[in-house]
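Let's study a protein:

===
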Amino acid sequence: MPHYEPLFTDAPGLNWSGPGDHWSRAWALETVSGAPARPGPPAIEPAGRAQDQPPTPRDIRLIQASLAVVEPVADRATAHFYALIFLHHPEVRALFPAAMDVQRDRLFRALLLAARSADDPVGLTAYLSRLGAGHRKYGTLTGHYGPVGECLVAALARFCGSRWDAETELAWRRVYALVSRIMIESAEAAAASSPPWWQAEVVSHQRRTPDVAVLTLRPDQAYPYRAGQYATVETPWWPRVWRHFSFATAPRPDGLLTFHVKAVPAGWVSNALVHRAAAGDVLRLGPAAGAMVLDHEREPDTDLLLLGGGTGIAPIGALVEELAERGTRGRPVEVFYGARHSADLYELESLRRLAERHPWLSVRPVVSGRQQVPGAALSGDLPEAVSRYAPWHGYSAYLSGPAAMVRRGVAALQGAGVPAERIRHDLVGDLAAG
């Protein structure tokens, strides 16, 4: 790979996002941030600021009970929630994509996870901290949390029906106060050390199959990440629409970033990146996220089992690169690489070359459809093929690929002797699609 000079050497203004910025103008939407907001849902202030107190066990039970009522009508409830926001606070509309279907799904999943984790403060804080730091790329400001909370309470009150009362409202206000506080503090801490988003120029676009492309990007500033993580990506053709893509290499000395992208049916971002993007185009990246990283301190001698399906082989390849750089201390590394057809195993030769140089690495291709070369790969679905080589006692497993494959793979690995705490994945397939 030739050496590239930085695209931008001094670009402090390019990392600002919000109503009226360059990306909003590209969407051709005029915001009304200077206009007074319309009267919103009435705020009911509990006596003595009781809402500022931590949620109690009863609060958690009330919230979970109310979510059980709302869940069957979640689509209507979240649509009403966003309608309230855009009606009473139209100045924030430019922070959201034109099509809100995926955004509505994300909201309710986040609410469910936060409510179910309310009795796990450590896990909840870690989740919300990542969420708060990541929301900076949308242009979210501290002042947005208050109006959003009022609209959320109003929407829940409408769709909870008879299950909604003053005690349930107080429980929700307490939990939302906790959620917003953690997210705001995380965003403020992240702002001290990193921009809300990065701009990155496409320096290479290679088509590996008719619907898979490998993109290499040059960010405008140093971009920190770990092998196995992923980033959210936004294109200029679909402003405010972000999708997840995993890094395909370990961090490189030249700072370049590589992603494998598969164009999926009706996928706005993926189709744009595969069929439209070219060298010279500029994309936006959110901060790196994901916990599917190697733990060299806690598990220095654990044997490793790596499963990659389709473009899910990208983070698996990055993990192998990191192992090759740091050394494996003689422990074996087993890679299972699955695809529907043998022609879709576009990264197989690169992995085999690595295996030739490193005796600790074993690569097994798996094809679920009809093979073009009989016997060239294992046949069947990836989780089934891995189960044939069971047991896998003493291994730590890493999985990446379509969401359905990851779920089946987790079940297969547990049945093959891998403890749940040693199975790592970032199941973002449902959000990344498109």
